[in-house]
Amino acid sequence: MVTKGLEMVKCGVVALYFLWLISNRFGFVVSHGDINEVHIPQQFQRTSYHFHPLKNWMNGPMYYKGIYHLFYQHNPNGAVFDSKIVWGHAVSRDLINWAHLNHALEPTHPFDINGCWSGSVSFLHNNKPVILYTGLDSSFQQVQNLAIPSNFSDPFLEIWTKSSHNPIIVPPNGVERHRFRDPTTAWPGPDGGWRIAIGGQTSYGGAAMLYGSEDFVHWYQSRFPLYSSRDSGNWECPDFYPVKLNGSNGVDFLNGSRVGVVKYVMKASLNSHDYYTLGSYVPEKEKFTSDSGDGFDLRGTNLGLRYDYGKFYASKTFYDSSQKRRILWGWVNESDSREDNIKKGWAGLQVIPRKIWLSKTGRQLIQWPVKEVEKLRTNHFSLYNKELRGRSTMKVLGGSASQVDTEVSFEFPYLEEAERVDTRWFDLDPQLLCSKRDASVNGRVGPFGLLVLASNDLSEHTAIFFHVLKAHNRYVVLMCSDQSRSSFREGVDKTTYGAFVDIDPRHEKISLRTLVDRSIVESFGAKGKTCITSRVYPTLAVDDDARLYAFNNGTQSVVISSLKVWKMSNAQIV
């Protein structure tokens, strides 16, 4: 992918030496090459428990021999995108605390001399990992390359060797040389060989081009793409994987046939969002068919399924065999300018990894932060059955709320008073609705929710809220993340995000979980049915001056049936 994020050095003066002993919590030693002392001004908006590189601008995650690995695109020379990108490499035992290793891949050969771009890790027979990645060659053409660990017995996989056969795949006829990238994780074909998909733009439109191989070195292109969308542009970072029809456990292609009936997910990154569609896959015909017929819906309505309806892109999943779950990673870029990134010395981060599975209805995916993040919880506060009257605000925490994990659920004694909308609900644009009906607009049943990273006088805050509407014969639940008052800074993106939530408020409570970490707000509506991530830069609501409120700006009372808040400790990212 072309535009992944970057990250920078921690606050203050940092000196990195040849050997670092990581905390006993990790239980291993990591070596680093010499790094010159770097001075970076203190950054109070740099996150404290989200993964980020040690410095500068921020591919394929995996689990191997008891260690989680995260490979990520990184510019070691600055806090902005540069084509000569490398593969950063970090390891963890719990997905939360991370230790950086030396770069896994750097531009060194004619087939990648201008950059080692995105790709994936695949496991071959006997559980041996390999990397497929896009290289920007000496003529700035995008080609696909293979790298293999130098020592399979090393659980840290610190040294990778590039194949002498590289490049193993070059752009086919009819595909532009700069739109052919991001190979997926491989899966076994019915002939005993391997299959991968590569993103790009073809005569079929945006597509996941299908390739096969018997030996993982020599590849042939299938006649038709695995999936395509004529109305879409160039596809980046495609992902293709199975999910179980019943239960939240994950599954991969190798054991999918042993766990019962599965559905398949086809995902692509385009237009600054990560879209997915659910469907069936017939290996013998090498064909994926979307349940929705049209597949990706790019019109802005609720029909287009996305992982996240906020700032979230270039995501990648992997199957965690140790916990029998599928994990989703996503990249979050900055909302300020290129000049701001250079000044502060860092840009971009990863969301908290999310467990992902198919909903009981089979209509969408569910996401939830991995359970390991709960190890960072401290100082628990809770309340129950609290009425939140119309047009009222309630302070939840008097102390600092710059790093918190909050879970709240709401009930509605006056649901029948919800406002009516004349338009058919599936023709409504939820983001436009959230922009017009922001947190300050008085409604009936809503807006209600949380004000996070709020100043004491509420002049600065980010609102995550719900609004219940009546559309013909059904209730519609709108979820919004309103950044319009998130910062007094100029030149910052303050987009208001929105999406519908597939829930019937007559029979279910509406729940919200929000993770706040200084400048990122991750929100999960209805137990993970709808997710919205925001990047904000408060100027007043920082550190000890950040507050948390519950609010109801509707005319009708709502009831907080349960509210739980934990302050979050820092993760160890070294």
Automatic annotation (TrEMBL):
Residues 372-567 form the Glycosyl hydrolase family 32 C-terminal domain. GO terms for biological process: carbohydrate metabolic process. One of its GO terms (molecular function) is hydrolase activity, hydrolyzing O-glycosyl compounds. InterPro entries: ConA-like_dom_sf (IPR013320), Fructan_Metab_Enzymes (IPR050551), Glyco_hydro_32 (IPR001362), Glyco_hydro_32_C (IPR013189), Glyco_hydro_32_N (IPR013148), Glyco_hydro_beta-prop_sf (IPR023296). Transmembrane segments: none annotated. Keywords: Glycosidase, Hydrolase. SMART domains: Glyco_32. PANTHER family: BETA-FRUCTOFURANOSIDASE, INSOLUBLE ISOENZYME CWINV1-RELATED. This is Beta-fructofuranosidase, insoluble isoenzyme CWINV3-like isoform X2. It comes from Cucurbita maxima. The gene is LOC111491703.
